[in-house]
């Protein structure tokens, strides 16, 4: 099915701007041409295939992969010329070689990823593999574009002869310039080239004394550029050699052109494939810039665009307010009302542009979960249709456009009408508008219309096929919000808009007085509804502020919790460090006291030492108790709801205790049979009941000891046949052999090994085990069991 969209609709919606944006993202001229001519696709399958192609290219972009299209130029004209036996210039042939190389790079890159991008890979198979021809052309030219000596042996030989003649001529000229008898006849001591011949500048007065051919003269005639007679023969030989070089160069260019011409059809097909790939990549880049998604469209009848944004506004980097546009069930016409410059037309054209983009196989700037039918055609009338050349007023031209649309519309058409029947008497205009809309809906079209007419706003209450929507207006800022609200009609707010646009205040005030008694019942109802909406909006704003404040407090509490945990860990670390330092100090002091006891073995000294030990122990206990109390105070501050009968944690005892009495900042607590008075600041962690304890604590203690013993026990080493026998070796040689043995074992994935070193004096065994203890390869080792060789072997487990 061919899809035809009227040129007027494309202009109304600004579709050309979308195509220009697509072309701007192409990297080749054929790709840009293809993008600007992108067609509307006829079937659901074609659209789905085009969108799948864009999706594949977007996957490549997510992998930071770009098609290797560097070096691709538009050589279609040059290839056509080559196919007709024309002659291409060196720059065209060099560009052709780069094009052929690009074909190969692109095809190889996509075939490597064909499991991810099968459609792109299928297109790339149309790229010809002509690398030998590309290499032949490339090696025939130097980087500056000159034909290389490598192009043919004949060219190298001819150029060698030219270079030799140049050297001979220059050598003879150098001899002349060093001849004392010849120098006075020259204007200056140099030689140059005129008309391809070597000459010297001779003073005109000495013309008769310098035989030769005059090829040029200075403007004053005082200097003649003469080819000396002795160089004429060599000059002729040089001219002949140069002509042979030019002839060979032309032959090479013709040969390369003919070879390229024979492959011109394949190369042209390759350019077409490159253009298709380039356009697909540009469509993916455009979709990324628009943050576009593919809506569900196959078998869809309802319109549901989530967070719709106008494509042209997004491309201009304009801040766009996203809107939801939805028509479900029986609704087939969306009547959009509200203030001028509030976004009604933007909504209208955004939906139209999305319909066209979807038909062209492009993702649309709407969120995930969007649904949009694939409309067969799109009709629009947007803006002023006045045509003075045909004698049509604004209203006449608008009606003519409505006539054309009603005649052309068919089932599943999308019709967009901006300000329907607005430029005439409101009552008659409303009647025309209703009649036109009923005709369009009767033919199966989907309609979006903007209006200020009250009668159209009322249709939604009378006919389920109509649905109201309005664009918002902020009465505080006296400005539109550009937010679309479905299910409600909007007031025009014309006076507010006029005041915002600078109409004098006294005029606006007078207009408000006149409008109080004007308008029908619907207008007054809309005004009252708008007041209710504003009041509800104010309440919603206050609720949002309260919610934001609650969220702020929650975040502050989270931050405090994190800070509290950080401080607790820091205090715990300091506590551990202090305990360790105190233990070291106490051990040192005990050692000193023991030394004193050993040297002074009398009762008085022993009594003094015992007293000092008890004193040091008490000081250490006090420091530990103070540190624990400080740690506990940070770890869990004392609760404010302590009560008699509650179980809490005591920081000094580091045990759970029961509160028996409370007196101000003191509490009587019981820890088993022991009772004591303690500060409430040392209590925390209120619990309603006594913490549960095991009925058999000794049994639990034994079980825990067994578990710790099992965890500490070495893991069993699996049996192995991987062995290293170093018996009889010197320790140094044995360790070298052992290192190589372990290297091989790690590479081959061995889990265990046996080293046979024998008993001997034990020196070799000890050297090997010292080595194993420091080796990074070894997880553990042990002497062998009796059945393994006893202490004459060492069994090792290798790291995985």
UniProtKB/TrEMBL annotation:
Every Smr domain range: 724-799
Which Pfam families does UniProt cross-reference here? MSSS, MutS_V, Smr
Coiled coil where?
526-634
Report the Gene3D superfamilies cross-referenced here: 3.30.1370.110, P-loop containing nucleotide triphosphate hydrolases
- Tell me which domain of life the UniProt entry assigns to the organism this sequence originates from: Bacteria
- Which residue ranges have biased composition labelled Basic and acidic residues? 690-701
Enzyme Commission number, as recorded: 3.1.-.-, 3.6.4.-
Region entry Disordered: which residue ranges?
682-717
Q: Which GO terms describe its biological process?
A: mismatch repair; negative regulation of DNA recombination; rescue of stalled ribosome
The record ties this protein, via SUPFAM superfamilies, to: DNA repair protein MutS, domain III, P-loop containing nucleoside triphosphate hydrolases, SMR domain-like
Please tell me whether the keyword DNA-binding is annotated for this protein.
Answer: yes
Q: Where is the signal peptide?
A: none
Q: Which InterPro entries match?
A: DNA_mismatch_repair_MutS_C, DNA_mismatch_repair_MutS_core, DNA_mismatch_repair_MutS_sf, MSSS, MutS, MutS2, P-loop_NTPase, Smr_dom
Question: What keywords tag this UniProt record?
Answer: ATP-binding, Coiled coil, DNA-binding, Endonuclease, Hydrolase, Nuclease, Nucleotide-binding, RNA-binding, rRNA-binding
Assembly mode = Homodimer. Binds to stalled ribosomes, contacting rRNA.
- State the family it belongs to: Belongs to the DNA mismatch repair MutS family. MutS2 subfamily.
Q: What does this protein do?
A: Acts as a ribosome collision sensor, splitting the ribosome into its 2 subunits. Detects stalled/collided 70S ribosomes which it binds and splits by an ATP-hydrolysis driven conformational change. Acts upstream of the ribosome quality control system (RQC), a ribosome-associated complex that mediates the extraction of incompletely synthesized nascent chains from stalled ribosomes and their subsequent degradation. Probably generates substrates for RQC.
Q: What is the protein's given name?
A: Endonuclease MutS2
Give the organism the record lists.
Cystobacter fuscus (strain ATCC 25194 / DSM 2262 / NBRC 100088 / M29)
